[in-house]
Write a structure and sequence with these properties.
Length: 570
């Protein structure tokens, strides 16, 4: 039988029930002062409501949060900034201001536990010569009271720095969730998505169409025309396991798989400035259905194999495992730092770790039961919004938890724009192939710095796979399938996915003789196929989506099924 999308991917609430639960609270944040030495700043919706707003909320299956307002930053008794809080956090790290608001689905396991965080985030970066870090969260109590807390401030300027809200609000409001987007790739010779997928796309990060690659690590605004382009494609390939004796079949089934490029230029592996463009760029393309420019709850599933030549640095002696094997995910849209999620050997033990920008490999290491030259299915389920952790699985079995991160998804294909709101010139978007260029920058006129100078902004619409500009540490690996969804897969759902499969992950290739051959025994069209189609059609699942317009289940799909069924199997 076909596999349907898990229940967690469906919109959970009935429309009437959701409307009955609509509610919003706003907390007055004026006079909140984040200073050092620091006492936690706490406000709640009962004692500190914004004028005329409700004091409690009954959370539905989705909600929006937002921290908004104006702040004054003082250091050494000098006012360094007076303006909106979002741009301030963008000074700490480009795009960080986006994380002050977002939309949250409650996921496969239901609402947050009573008294649990509905949103929690740590903001860190450099400002006015200081390194600053502060955490914020919203908590919704069982009685519906919403509490905002700012805590754990650190600053190397000590008592001489403060951030004070002159006015502002903290908002939590109910939201009827959009249907999560899910895309899968089978790498059968190209980056086409599997049948039944949504709109996410993969491209080579250094395609010439995207323009000049930016210089090295953290040199965001400096394009360099001398950096070679189209190297990722030249250093990678599609491999048929039936024709390459060095690549085993997947559970006895041959498949065409993708051999990734290393995260360095093979012609000069030590040239750091040539690492920036190497890897794959993925555009989640979740907007406008999901209204947020970044995704803080997501799942990635990889069917992959690490060859011994990438596992051991002294291959074929095979006595010294490489510390770096695969850069699974670089959350920066333009690969301007170290990768965030890694497969590594630490002390000879293979495992996965989250290390923001590749800077700290001492926390959150999850040992994994994987081995060289062996296919495995790796799942990362990242909940940045509610728990701040990622759950890790191998072949459907839970392995442990590590840190989490959000991924950029700021492209609305109907109105492509940079992250500061400046619209992209339509000819540029056409040249890029209707895909957000990782290297493009706005004019900066809509996002001036503290002195009023233009501050060009990126598109912030992609994340990178097998990319790492800091170390160039990612080695070639084989990838049979990849799945991305803007939803949290639950333990049972990941368990149901099991281990690697040549047919795919959630949207497997049909084993049937034609589009109507949906159920076993494959190769014969019978009543079981009719039942499978009717089941899929009634639940609006991809196997029944057989005719244009795709994504719409109507009479044209019925006609397409009957036509294929009537044609019979050869």
């Amino acid at each position: 039988m076909f596999r349907s999308k898990p229940a967690a991917f469906a919109v959970v609430a009935l429309a009437g029930a959701a409307q009955a639960q609509q509610a919003q609270v706003e907390i007055d944040l004026s006079t909140v002062e984040i200073a050092f030495p620091f006492n936690d700043q706490v406000r709640d919706s009962v004692n500190n409501p914004a004028d005329g707003t409700a004091e409690t909320i009954i959370l539905s299956d989705g909600y929006r949060f937002a921290v908004e307002g104006n702040v004054v930053v003082t250091a050494f008794f000098i006012e360094f900034y007076n303006g909106p809080v979002g741009p301030l956090f963008n000074f700490l790290e480009p795009g960080l201001g986006n994380v002050l608001s977002g939309w949250v689905r409650n996921g496969a396991d239901g609402l947050p536990p009573a008294g649990g965080s509905t949103w929690r985030e740590t903001f860190a970066g450099g400002f006015a010569g200081a390194q600053v870090e502060v955490s914020m969260e919203f908590v919704v109590a069982p009685d519906g009271r919403v509490t905002f807390r700012a805590f754990d401030l650190s600053s190397d300027l000590g008592i001489l720095m403060s951030i004070e809200f002159t006015e502002g609000t903290g908002t939590v409001e109910n939201w009827t969730p959009s249907a999560p987007q899910t895309t899968e790739w089978h790498f059968n010779g190209d980056f086409s998505s599997a049948s039944g997928s949504d709109e996410s796309e993969i491209r080579y990060l250094d395609e010439a169409a995207f323009g000049d690659i930016l210089v090295g690590e953290d040199a965001e605004a400096t394009p360099d025309p001398t950096i070679p382009k189209d190297v990722t494609q030249a250093q990678s390939s599609f491999v048929d396991t039936a024709l390459d004796a060095g690549v085993p079949a997947i559970n006895g089934v041959d498949d065409v798989v993708y051999l990734s490029s290393p995260a360095f230029n093979l012609s000069d592996p030590n040239k750091a400035e040539w690492r920036r463009g190497l890897g794959l760029a993925c555009n989640p393309s979740t907007m406008p259905g999901y209204p947020n420019p970044y995704v803080g709850q997501w799942s990635l599933v990889y069917d992959m194999l690490i060859p011994a030549s990438s596992w051991y640095q002294d291959f074929p002696t095979n006595s010294q495992p490489r510390p770096f094997m695969a850069a699974l995910l670089q959350t920066d849209a333009d690969n301007d730092a170290g990768a965030d999620f890694w497969l590594r050997n630490q002390g000879g033990q293979p495992g996965l770790i989250y290390a923001k920008d590749g800077l700290d490999f001492t926390q959150g290491f999850v040992p994994l039961p994987i081995a060289p030259d062996t296919w495995f299915r790796l799942a990362i389920v990242a909940d940045e919004f509610q728990r701040g952790v990622s759950r890790v699985y191998v072949d459907g079995v839970f392995a442990g938890e590590t840190g989490s991160e959000w991924v950029a998804a700021a492209l609305d294909p109907g109105t492509p724009a940079y992250s500061d709101g400046e619209l992209v010139d339509p000819p540029d978007f056409l040249v890029w192939g209707m895909f957000p260029s990782p290297w493009a920058r706005s004019s900066g006129a809509m996002n001036p710095d503290a002195d009023g100078n233009p501050l060009p902004a990126p598109m912030n619409s992609t994340f990178c796979v097998f990319a790492d500009s800091l170390f160039g540490g990612s080695q070639p690996v084989y990838l049979a399938n990849l799945l991305f969804t803007e939803a949290l897969l639950g333990d049972a759902e990941v368990s149901d996915l099991g281990g690697p499969d040549a047919a795919g992950i959630l949207l497997p290739e049909s084993a049937g003789c034609n589009a109507a051959d949906l159920a076993e025994p494959f190769g014969a069209l019978d009543f079981s196929d009719v039942i499978a189609f009717l089941t899929a059609f009634g639940t609006m699942q991809p196997p029944a989506d057989l005719a244009e317009p795709m994504g719409v289940f109507d009479f044209s799909d019925v006609i397409a099924f009957l036509t294929a069924f009537g044609a019979g199997c050869p």
